[in-house]
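Before going further, it is useful to explain how the protein records used in this thesis are read. An example of such a record is reproduced below.

***
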Amino acid sequence: MGMFDAAKSLIDSLNDRNVINAEINIEKLKAKKDISALIDILRQADEIIVIVSAQIALGDIGEAALEPLLESLNTQDKKARENISGAIGNIGKPAEERLIGLLEDENYSFRIEAIGALGKIGNERVINILIEILKNNDEQKITRFSAMEALSLVDNEAVVEPVIGLLKDRDSWNRAAAIHILNLTDSRKAEDAFYQAVDDEIVDSSDSTAFDEEMIEVFDL
């Protein structure tokens, strides 16, 4: 079965709502290391459970999937890019250097997807890089907001301390971003810092409202 046939078979199973069968197909493709077919699924699938399963499968295949995934980022389809970058993030450490290199790419779409993928890696080095992007006033706002969102999804306690440090930043935008991250980070320490910042009125209501409105405008929510 070729790449197109494998992806079509999986999409047909989704049309029948046979998600279990779709996941079985993904496991078979992973066992065969059919990277092209798995990437094609990321381009076509709409069901989140199937997208995540394909991302996990490509992450499990590991470094062998990295180059094909990076090449596949060169698409005008925003949803496909997001799905593909999620798979790159699942590869983890072997993808780190290439993703950091993409942060300098002239194509800002590549930079955005690299930021999202780095958030899934989320080690201390990556956290510091993402914070510097967030704080950089010379960056486009969508890039800074993307760094903020990536930091809020980092599954690592190491993100909490440097973000708490942003609460004392002179820039009200950075303080508001820190509040947003702490509010979404699944950590008791982050939760305590968030409520303390609210009690201390670190971000006043006008700053917070302006920040939220700007985020909605940038992401076209």
